[in-house]
Amino acid sequence: MHRISSNMSNNDVQYNLRRQELRVNKASNQMGSQRRIQQLRDDPIAAGHLVRYESYGKRLETFEKNAQLISDQYSVTEGYVNQSLQVMQRVRELAVQGAHGTYTPEDLKNMSIEVDELLKELVLNANATGPDGTSLFAGTRSNTTAFDVVYGSVPGAGEMLITNVMYNGNVESQNIEVDEGQYLETSHAGSRIFWAEQQTLFGMRDATSYVVPEDGVISVDGKEIKLKAGDNIHAIMAKINDSGAAVKAFLDPVSNGLTLQTTDARQLWLEDKGDMTTLFDLGMIKDSSQRPPNNINPTASLAGGSLFDAVIALRDAMIAGDQESIGGRVLGTIDLGISSLTGNLAESGAKYERAGQNLARIGNEILNVNNLVAREGDLDITEAITNLKMLEYVQQATLSTAARMYRNTLLDYVK
Fold this sequence. Notes:
This protein is α+β, with helices and mostly antiparallel strands. It has helices at about 10-35, 45-100, 105-125, 190-195, 235-240, 280, 305-320, 325-375, 380-405, and strands spanning about 145-150, 160-165, 175-180, 180-185, 200, 215-220, 225, 245-250, 260, 270-275, 300-305. The strands form four sheets. A four-stranded antiparallel β-sheet has the order 8-9-5-11. The radius of gyration is 37 Å and the shape is elongated. The two termini are about 40 Å apart.
C-alpha cells in the first residue's frame, strides 16, 4: 500500500526531470566527443575491444615512425656507400693504367696526386654524418668520428700525406623494433663496410698446453663467449667457432699458435672481458687497458687490410714507381675491396627495400585498426542527432506538463 500525498506528484516530476537531464547530458557529451562509449558500463564488451584496438594502434604508430626512421637512414647510408664504390672504381682504373708499364716514373708520380685526392674523398665518405649529426659508420658510437686519420712523411713526396686510417667506432649493433618482436639494424660498422680483405691474426705463442685459469668471458667480433676454468685450446677454438661470430679459429701447424681469421672482409675485434686474460695470455692482444681494434699484440702477425690501406699502397707504389707492385698485390687488394663494397651496397639496398615494405604493411594495418576502433567506439552522428532531438523534445514536454500541474504562484494568494 502506498500513501498518496500532495508531494508525491511533485517528487515524481522532479525525479523524471533529473533522469531526462541525465540522458540529454549523456547525448550531448557523445556529440561533443563523437564517441559512443563515455564510461565502461555503457558497453563493457565493446569497451574491452576498444582498449585493445587503441593500444595496438598506438604501437603501430610507433612501429611506423621507427620504420620510417630506418628507411631514411638506409637511404642516406646507401648514397655514401655508392659514392665510395664510384671512388674505388676510379682508383682501380688508375691502378690498371699504372700497371701497363707504358708510363714513366714521373707519370706515375703525377697520377699519385689524383689517387691521394680520391683517398681523401673515401675518408670523407667514411666519416659522413646523417641528418641528425651522428656518424653513419661508427657502430653505436655515433657521436664520435668513425675513422681517425694519421699523417706522416712518404718517401718521394714533398708534403705530409695520409699514412694510416684507424677505425674509431665499434662493432655493436643497435636494433629498432618495427613489429611485435621484429627488429631492424640501424647502426653500421665501418670496420666491415670499408674493409677490403679477410683479416687473419697469427699468434706466435705455443698454445697446445694452455688451460683457462678461471671462468670468464672473451669477446670476438662483438660476440661474448663464456669460458670455463680448465678449458684447453681446443675447447676455446670450438666455442669461438660455434659462437656465431664471423671468425674461425684454428691452430697454426708450424707455430702451434692460435690463429683467428674472419669469414669475410672485416676487421678483427678481440677483447678480454673483466678480469679475463685468455687472449692476452695467448699472445693475441695487449692487456685489457687497450681498446679494440687497436689492441693487437705486436708480437702477433696480422694480415688483411682496409680500402684505405689499398689506396695508400697504390699511391705509395706510384710515388716510388713500383709498377710490379701496382699490377700485382695492390690491384688484387683493390679488386677484393670493390667486391666487398659491392656486397655491402647490395645488403644496404636490400635492408632499405625491406624497411620500405615494412612501412607499407604497417600503413595498411593502421587503416584496418582504425576501422575496428571506429566500429566499436565511434558515434553514428545521424542517429545521435535524432536521439538528442527526441530527448530535448521529451524534456520540453515534461517541463510544459509540470508547469500546467502547478499553475498557482504566491501572487494568487495576495489580496
